[in-house]
Amino acid sequence: MTGSLKPHILPSISACISSSLSEPTSYAQAIKDLRWQRAMSDEYNALIQNNTWKLVPPPPDANIIGLDYNQTFAPVIKLSTVRLNDDEIIVLLIYMDDIVVFGSSKNLNHQFVSSMHSEFSMKDLGPLRYFLGVELVPNSDGLLLLQCKYINDILTRFDLAQTKPVLTLLHSKMGWNSVESQLLDDVSIFRQMVGSLQYLSFTRLDIQFAVNFASQFLYKPRQIHLQAVKCIFRYLKGTIRNGLQLYARSPLSLTIYSDSDWAGCTTTRRSTSGFYIFLGDNLISWAAKKQHTVARSSTEAEYRAPATATVEATWLQFLLRDLVIFLKTPMIAKCDNIGAIYLTHNLVYHSRSKHVALDYHFIHEKVKQGNLIVSHVHTSQQLADLFTKVLSSTRFQDLLNNLHVRSSPFD
């Protein structure tokens, strides 16, 4: 990237996609389906037609790789590939052989797709509607991201499709550490259930706290833990049309909400940090994670939360610049702990702050450079509470509304 590029607002974005809406869970299952047999044959024939490989005699000193079909390696790109041409931009999101294309004009998108068609055998499935288990539903405000199909799939997988749905999620830790509950004879199902819920965090912020807490019991789960996880599945069935709203029109500014409990883990006494990052009105990044070391004070625990979030927000700034989107205002971090806010401006104000790891001084440097403004937010307005605290049903729903979790009507 060079400094000669002028910032501009991208016009309406169109997209093209190649993806599949139905996937078997094993090869044995796929081979029984004529459609998948045909798809596998088409895939193989495409590799042959595109001269993907050529069989040649090996050199005398070559090290021939043995049978390693149980090992997989997919050299796919993790980030978006960006191509620039004067004032136009096109971005390719590539996962295996599925490609999402969006650019500064429909004409540019069509030119790219036509160029790809001239070189490769591929399908253009039109505007983006479904990708990697996420459904994109257009509405009057923009797009609603849903994972209804994935939820139905995991409900069926764990024989919970007929379970009674509920509309509220249990947010209490009481009983989770009970040693009176019987240990599970087979822990594999519990681990699979928790693992399947992790992918839903892409759109379902409402289950993040419960899933993270359940993950702490993967080693020796008990019956009470299994019942709690089943309650999460029942909640998902009752709120299957909930998703994350993205707005088409929104200001270009980064705002961080971060929070932490203090010694919340009763086993290790480590604290849990959580944060949300908004680009204007759109929630674009979030995370909740147990801190690596024990915090000696609530101020230290709270300080680590915005520090971690600032690292993520700084990376997002760089990504936006690569997409020719330049922010004109500093990042704003919202914190509800006065001591932590003061610590971002003066790291040596108290002797008890000396042991704070040096990597957390990153946020202090950002403040000094004028790239970050840390401001106080009242606890009642702290959106990151959803990741760190046990909440009442009313407070829980209020936070979801402020985080733009919406429900889509049934088709």
Automatic annotation (TrEMBL):
Domain Reverse transcriptase Ty1/copia-type: residue ranges: 90-168
Pfam families according to UniProt: RVT_2
Superkingdom, taxonomy of origin: Eukaryota
InterPro entries: DNA/RNA_pol_sf, RVT_2
Protein name: Uncharacterized mitochondrial protein AtMg00810-like
Organism field: Nicotiana tabacum
